[in-house]
Each structure stands twice: as C-alpha cells, then as structure tokens.
Design brief:
The complex is a heterodimer. By secondary structure, chain A is mainly β. Chain A has two domains: 219 residues, Immunoglobulin-like (Sandwich); 220 residues, Sandwich (Immunoglobulin-like). Chain A has eight helices and 28 strands. In chain A, strands 1, 2, 3, 4, 5, 6, 7, 8, 9, 10, 11, 12, 13 and 14 form a 14-stranded mixed β-sheet that branches. By secondary structure, chain B is of the alpha+beta class. Chain B has two domains: 264 residues, Alpha-Beta Plaits; 65 residues, no CATH class. Helix content of chain B is 21%, strand content 20%. Chain B has a four-stranded mixed β-sheet with strand order 14-3-16-15. A three-stranded antiparallel β-sheet of chain B has the order 17-18-19, with helices on one face. A two-stranded antiparallel ribbon of chain B has the order 1-2. The N and C termini of chain B lie far apart (68 Å). The relative contact order of chain B is 0.16. Classes of the chains: A mainly beta, B alpha+beta. At the A-B interface, helix 8 of A face strand 12 of B. Bound molecules: iron/sulfur cluster (2 copies). The site of one iron/sulfur cluster has 14 residues of chain B, from helix 4.
Chain lengths: 549, 379
C-alpha cells in the first residue's frame, strides 16, 4: 500500500487570511520594538532523514530486559544528575511506524533507556539524538516528544505493543517539549487581543491540561482510542544538550488511579517507547517506535528479614510526629497487590517503613508509607486510606496462614482508618443534608450503636479476629489506640496496645520471643477497599526485645 | 462455579452459589400501562424507611421515565454496555450475564459504582419523548406510537440469583428462606460497596453516615403479617399487585402471580439478560415500539403485547385479575372470576377483595324530584 501523495499547496482564502495575520504580527513587532530574536530566527533547516536502519532478523531469544535498579535515595528528576550512572543502560532500536495510517517517523533510530526506583518513586530516563529543539506551538510546525507505554496490571499477557487492544488497555505517558517550555508564539500585546479562553481551559481543552504539566497520562485500547486520564501523576522533565534529548519520567511506584500501571518491586512488566521529531514533521502516527515490548524488571527492595520491637524505658508516644519516633531505626517492608481472592487489587503502596518499641507493659508500632493525598471520606462514591497489622492470635497453636488466618488458627487484626479518624464531628461528606428532609428519626437513633462501623465513638482503629477470608469479626474488647498524621506526602500511623492481655484472640507479644506480623495498606484515591489492598504474601518475623529484669 | 438454571434466559448459567429456593418467593407485577408517575410509591417508601441522615439521596422505590430517565444516571445502559449488548436466539439468551462477563475480567460480578452525582438527579429525563419530531396537526393513529415515553417504577427485585449478594465478599447479604426477601445484615456489613457495584439494577445503596450499605427490605415486617409493601399498598394508579411466585414448573393457575407470569405470560422480568432472575415483573407498555421493549423485557414482549392488545378485551379472567390490582392491602394467594366479579383470597382462604369487571352504570336524571331541582353538571 502506498501512502497517498501530498496535494500541491495552493493559495487559498485561508492562506490569505493567515498571511494577513502574519503581516499584523510583523507590524506589531516593528511598532512595539519587541525583541526580534524570535522573528529573525531562521526557519529550522530540514535535514534529510537518515537512511533506514537495517533491522536485525528477530532472534529466538527473548529481548533484553530493562532493569529498574533500586537506589537508596529518591531517583533524580534531572536527566543529567550523576545518580543516573547507577542505572544500567539499555539501547532500544526504533523504526518508522508502518502499521496504521498515517505512516511515518523513523528519523530516530535508537533510544537509550534507564530506570531507577527507591521503593516509593520510579523514574525512567530516555535519551536520543536530535540536533534541534522543536518546542513551538505554531500553526505550521511540530514539536519534539516522547512517550512510554505500559500494560495495566491484570492483563495476563501483555496487549498489543502498538497502543493496546480492545479490552486490554495500555497506559501511555506522553511528554512534549512544547508543554514543558513552550517557545513563545504570542507577544504580550497579542495576549491582550486574544485573552485565553478560560472556558475551554476550565473544560480541560487546554494544552497542556494544567500549567507546569509537561506529561499527560492516557489510556489506549487500540489505534484511535487514545483518551486522557482524568488526573495526572507523572512528572516529566526533558533537557536538550549537545544534540541529545534526555527526558526523565517519574511516578509514585504505587498507582494513584485504578487504571494506571502497577509497578511492584521484585516483579516484571513491559515498556514500549515512541519518539517524535518535530523538525521531521512527526506527529501522531508519524513517529519512531518499537514494534515489540521491552521487558521491564523492577529490582526487589532490600527488605528487613526480621522486624524488631525495641525495648525502651519511658513513654511510648501515640503522636506519630513525636521526635521519639524519628529516633527509632526504620525497617523496610515490601508489599504486593492482593491477587489470591476476589476482588483482586491493591498495588498503590509498595513499601512501608516500620518502627516498633515496647516498655515491658505496652507495645507501640509506627508505620509510614507514601501517599500523596489524605483520603478521609468514605462516601457514596469515595474510599478512605487505611492500614492494618495482623498477628497470630495467642490462641493459635501453630502458625496460621499469613492471609487472614485459617480455621482454628485465628489471627488478630488491628485496622486504622482515615475516615474513622476524621470522625463524625468533621465528617467530610459532599452529600447534601438539609435538615428539612429528615422527617423522622436519624439512622443514629434507629440503629443500635454497635451497628456502626466505628466500634467505639471517637476511635480511629478497631480490633478484629479472623479465621480465613470473609470471617473478619470485631473483637469484643476494643482496647487499641491509634493515630495517623498525613505530612509531606506520607501517612504516619501509630498503634499502641498492651503487651499482654487475658484475651486469647489478642496477639502474643512476649519479650525475648519472636512472633510474626503481616500488613495491609489501602489507598482511597486508588479506590482500594476490602480485598483491593497491598499486602505481604508471607509473615514477617517480629522479635520483641527482652525487657531488663 | 456452580451451574444454576435460570428460566428467564432459557438456559443454565454460572452463579457463585448453589441454588436454594425459599419456601415462598416475594414477587410483584407492575402494569406500566397504568403508572402516572405520581411518585406516591417513592414517597411512601421514603417516609417509611429512608428518612434518616446518610439516606437523603436514597430512593429504594423510584419512578423513572423511559427511555431518557434513569436513577442513578444511565444505570441500565452502562450495564448493558458492560456485558456487551445482549442477544437472544428465540427464548434463549446467548449473550453474557453479569456473572459470565465477570469471569472474563477476573471479577465476581460485572458492574460499576455510580458516583454521588449519578444519584443526584432522580427525575432526569422525566417526560421526555423519544421518536419522531412532533409536527403541527399531528395525529397518532397506530398502537406503538411514533412518539413515546413511559414510566418505569422500580424497587429491588429480590432476585433469585442476586448480584448484590454474589459480590459481597463477607456474605453479609442473605435471602430469607421464608419469603425470598434479600437483606443486608447491618452487623456483618463492612461498607465495601461491592453490593452497590454488583446490583445491576442499582438498588443497593451506601449510607455514608453508618458506613454500611442498605437496600429495599421488601417491607418484610408487613410481608410477615400478610400485608403488601408500602409502595404497593399506596399506589394511586393501582398498577401494582404483590404475591408469591412459584417456579414455572409448579405454576398454579389460580395464583395471581403465576397466572400473569407463567400461564398467560403477560408480565415479564426486567432485563432478564443480566441473569439475576429478578422477581418484579412488568406488563410492558403497549404504546411503545417493540425493539426497545425487547431490550428491556426480553423476547416475551411480542406475546405479552399481543395478549394485552388483542386478547384482553375478550378475556374476563385476565380483565378480572388486572382489576384486582390495588384492590386490597393484603397479599392475595388465590383469585377467581365468577359472574362478572373477580375475587381475591388471602392465604387462609378469606376473601379480601371483590371487584366488578364492569362497573355498574348509574344514570342520574337531570331533574331530581325529591328536592325539586335540576342537577347541574358543574356540581
Ligand atoms: S435488585 Fe439488586 S439489590 Fe435487589 S436483590 Fe437484585 S441484585 Fe440485589
Ligand atoms: S404510586 Fe403507582 S402510579 Fe404513582 S408513580 Fe408509583 S407506581 Fe406509578
């Protein structure tokens, strides 16, 4: 199939109008004496596209994988930060897009790909040769750009590497040079003639969707289905130096929206790449692209293999911001999405920082994890942030299943919930509640107190016992204190409980001995609730330090 | 997954639990031809059950105009879209139920969670007409009107294979063994909203005040006393009748429910293709084009419409039963039609309703000799 030949340009009335507009601009520059740098800049010279790359015949071995290496510090946003030297480089060959009209691209033959993560944030760095920067938003020019594409979790086999397929969506992160640093196309005077259309901006038609967003997240289920995500959590920054573009994409390791790719430390997924070269007129299907997925391995977190509750003499503060907690060493716990029992889900939180201490009488746990939003509302269509710890019950003679216990081997579960902490007083409800509508008793009056989800008024945590999936039952005694604080994009939650009780469903914390613990974290904005949670598949040993006699 | 037989779709289907039949099954028939959208039913329910905080948006009974109305917005179109349309071969459904579609996607039930906004416009689309544009001098002289809308009153269907129940990961939802009413155990419920997602009819609702889900309770205290629900008893249009429905192979001709659903097949399930075997049945509106009705009530509409349009005028038995609608607040278990009168009986055999098929004609002469006045027809 040959692409249709381009029509010969003709002088059209539209062309005349454009010429007239251009003349007004030139006149404006002359009259107002603006810097002529832009006006005088020569039009970019068109370089001939390089000769097509001779592509290697496909080898039977799987394609080499990109390793997202773990580093102890946050991965850098700056593409030229020295930390990138830690990430192994993977060259990926690109070719012209020849599958769906309009065909084109191919001027970028190769990109170099690197990735890093620190358990909270994952970053990808893309580098390719391009001797010109094209970042103008102009009626007659195109801009440089690059995109990464990932399958969503839940697809057993990855969908088509070329923009997904029906029922098997892919996520696409699109960085554009013009979104990042738009080359000025409008003078200040012009802006007063044509004020920004705030109505269109408000409806999300503006490009980019928000100021300072250089990267837009899309979902695609095949050619022509590219759809903008309702919110954007990927930050991208490009840097052009010595004829080379280097772009870094960063996102929280855990997803924030349900239809975002899940990255799990210790697991693998796939990535694909597309690059647009503005000086070649690349846009849309005219791009340099790889026709197959590149496997992506995310390095396992260096986890603690045993958690410790240290002995301290003195108070165990319930306030997570108390300096006491900062002074305790943090241990790392890796989490994975819950994939065993319907409904599957989770994956928004990949790592917890764990601290614990006891004073011989009480035991306290401090859990911290990344979550950019505090989701306090459990409304008709909203979900709340939450965290739970699970221990074998004292009554379990042998070790129960780490996944909510099993028959005759119960587990004790402590759950803190942001909506409980928000409380009834400052309940965050968008639902209108005009008093005049309430013609009879309120639910509070008609339902016994025990029926409310908060076991005790003014509490933000509850104690449960479970002996297998679906058996979660509230404990009679609700003697748990917990408090959460959301600060700096992290939740910090402290639980405090008696070390020993006379209730056999409670955990057995015996100084000098080792028990076990598991965790579950829910991120409300990612619509996580119930089985949709990040957990551990195995128990983590928990050593309770001996108390001095 | 266990296989269950769903007679409404003419075949077996997968359902997460083994079938269990209650002693009696709650059931109702709504005659859409008579509903006037007065919303008395909605208010009867609202003032009885959902007048508390956290329940402001709830309408366990709602009445929406079809085709453009829906509460919550687009509930039915969204579910139809999610299961991939719906196709029938004769009386056999060959598309996917919400349970079968879910298997493909690694879920238990295919469904969606409406937003608060979706719940906020219960009267959206009210009285909006579908069909040809109206022009001056327009006359409608065909049945299946070229311009049309109709009212669809809806409650929980107390389904035999409930989607809400199937999707609850905590088994907080149960079907009462004595009357088939589907209830949410408020003590077990953890507020996961999975039932809201799993009910294709969107009749399970979340109470953000209690952190629990709630749903229509079939007015079970009244059902226990042999009385019809609030919405059925209060219906101004007398469009509703409540009873106990038998499985098709045990249908009894003198049971009002069985007669309408299984014997004459004039009352049809709503969206049987969802696969939940809903137990509220509808006599389809005779003025509406058939393709739309087939989508909503299944392939039985052709027969139901023919009976309603053509056979009913000469069928005293069916006429009598339709007249017993709304004639008593008691649940009728048996009816008969004799000598121009329809009689309804409750469980213990006592007659609880009697209506004439033809109202006696009373002619009042213009002159009243007793008071020596001429009657004016303005009084
Ligand atoms: S209509 Fe919905 S809420 Fe009622 S039983 Fe059926 S699935 Fe459950
Ligand atoms: S009370 Fe009866 S007539 Fe009125 S809207 Fe409800 S179902 Fe229709």
């Amino acid at each position: 199939m040959t692409p249709p030949s381009a029509p010969t340009p003709k002088a059209t009335p539209v062309g005349l109008v454009l010429a007239a507009v251009a003349a007004v601009f030139v006149l404006n520059f002359l009259i107002l004496g603006y810097s002529t740098q832009m006006a005088l800049k020569p039009a970019p010279t068109r370089v001939a596209p390089p000769a097509p790359i001779a592509r290697a015949t496909p080898a039977p071995v799987p394609p080499p994988a990109l390793l997202a290496r773990f580093i102890a510090v946050p991965p850098p946003a700056d593409p030229h930060d020295a930390a990138w030297a830690n990430a192994p480089e993977l060259p990926v060959l690109l070719g012209p897009q020849e599958v769906s009209l309009p065909f084109g691209g191919g001027s970028v033959a190769e990109v170099s790909l690197r990735a890093l993560h620190d358990g909270d944030t994952i970053a990808f760095r893309l580098e390719w040769a391009d001797d010109s920067v094209n970042s103008a938003r102009a009626v007659d020019a195109y801009r440089d750009g690059a995109a990464l594409q990932f399958p969503l979790a839940g697809s057993p086999t990855p969908p088509s590497a070329l923009m997904g397929e029906r029922g098997k969506p892919v996520a696409i992160w699109h960085w554009r040079a013009d979104w990042q640093d738009p080359a000025p196309t409008a003078s200040a005077a012009e802006a007063t003639w044509y004020p920004p259309n705030s109505e269109l901006v408000a409806r999300g038609f503006a490009q980019p969707p928000a100021p300072a967003v250089a990267c837009v997240e899309y979902l695609s289920e095949g050619w022509g289905t590219l759809t903008r995500q309702p919110a954007h959590h990927v930050a991208a920054r490009g840097n052009h130096r010595d004829g080379v573009w280097a772009v870094v994409f960063q996102r929280p390791l855990g997803r924030v929206m349900p239809h975002e790719p899940v990255f799990v430390a210790g697991e693998s997924t796939h990535v694909n790449i597309a690059v647009w070269n503005g000086s070649e007129g690349d846009v849309n299907g005219l791009k340099s692209v790889s026709t197959s997925w590149t496997p992506l391995e995310i390095e396992k977190l260096p986890e603690s293999d045993r958690l410790t509750a240290r002995y301290v003499a003195g108070a165990l503060p319930l306030d997570p911001t108390d300096p006491f907690w900062a002074a305790q060493p943090a241990q790392v716990v890796g989490l994975v999405p819950q994939r065993l029992v319907l409904p599957f889900g989770g994956g928004a939180v990949g790592r917890l920082h764990f601290r614990a201490a006891h004073d011989g009488r009480r035991i306290a746990f401090h859990l911290q994890w990344r979550d950019d939003t505090a989701d306090m509302e459990n409304g008709v269509d909203t979900y709340r942030d939450s965290v739970a710890m699970q221990f074998p019950s004292r009554g379990a003679t042998t070790m129960p299943s780490p996944l909510m216990g099993e028959r005759d081997k119960p587990v004790a579960i402590w759950q803190w919930r942001a909506d409980w902490q928000a409380g009834a007083g400052d309940r965050l409800r968008r639902q209108p509640a005009p008093e005049s509508l309430l013609v009879a008793a309120t639910s509070f009056d008609t339902l016994p107190r025990g029926m409310f989800d908060r076991p005790v008024p003014e509490t933000s945590a509850a104690k449960f016992v479970a002996a297998g999936w679906g058996t979660l039952t509230r404990q009679v005694r609700q003697d748990i204190a917990a408090h959460g604080v959301h600060a700096d994009g992290h939740w910090h939650v402290v639980f405090v409980h008696d070390l020993a009780t006379d209730d056999p469903t409670d955990p057995a914390f015996r100084p000098g001995e080792t028990t076990a613990v598991n965790f579950a974290v829910w991120n409300g904005i990612a619509r996580e609730v119930n089985g949709l949670k990040s957990i551990r598949m195995e128990w983590m040993p928990l050593h309770v330090e001996p108390a001095p006699k | 997954m266990p296989k269950v037989y769903n007679w409404q779709i003419g075949r077996e289907m997968e359902y997460p639990y083994e079938p269990g039949r209650p002693d009696k099954q709650f059931s109702a028939v709504f005659d859409t031809n008579k509903c006037i959208a007065c919303q008395t039913c909605s208010i009867a329910c609202k003032t009885t059950w959902t007048s508390g905080r956290g329940q402001e948006y709830m309408l366990w009974n709602n009445v929406e105009s079809k085709p453009y109305g829906s509460f919550p917005l687009q509930w039915d179109l969204k579910v139809l879209d999610m299961i991939g349309g719906a196709s029938w071969e004769g009386d056999r459904y060959v598309g996917k139920t919400i349970f079968e579609k879910a298997v493909e996607n690694g879920q238990t039930v295919e469904g969606f969670l409406p937003t608060l906004e979706d719940w906020s416009y219960p009267n959206c689309g009210e009285d909006e007409m579908a069909g040809e544009p109206l022009v001056g001098g327009y006359h409608i002289d065909e049945v299946a009107h070229p311009v049309w809308f109709y009212y669809l009153p809806r409650i929980c269907n107390h389904c035999s294979f409930p989607g809400c129940l199937a999707n609850c990961p905590r088994q907080s939802i149960y079907k009462r063994p004595d009357n088939g009413i589907v209830l949410i155990d408020q003590e077990r419920c953890h507020g996961y909203k999975q039932c809201v997602k799993g009910c294709p009819y969107k009749k399970a609702m979340f109470n953000s005040e209690t952190g629990r889900s709630e749903k229509c309770i079939g007015c079970y205290p009244k059902a226990e006393a042999g009385l019809a629900t609030q919405c059925i008893e209060q219906c101004i249009g007398k469009i509703r009748i409540q009873g106990w429905i038998s499985p098709p192979e045990q249908a009894r001709e003198d049971n009002p429910m069985d007669y309408l659903v299984h014997v004459r097949k004039v009352a049809l399930p709503i969206y049987p293709q969802f696969g939940t075997l809903p137990n509220v049945y509808y006599i389809p509106p005779m003025t509406v084009p058939e393709p739309f009705l087939r989508q909503m009530f299944g392939p039985g509409v052709t027969r139901a419409l023919r009976i309603y349009r053509e056979e009913l005028p000469n069928d005293p038995e069916l006429q009598g039963l339709l007249l017993l609608f709304g004639s008593t607040n008691q649940i009728m278990t048996r009816f008969d039609v004799r000598d121009g009168w329809a009689h309804g009986y409750r469980r213990d055999g006592k007659e609880v309703a009697r209506v004439p098929i033809t109202e006696p004609l009373v002619v009042r002469p213009a002159y009243d000799p007793q008071y020596d006045v001429v009657r004016l027809d303005t009084t």
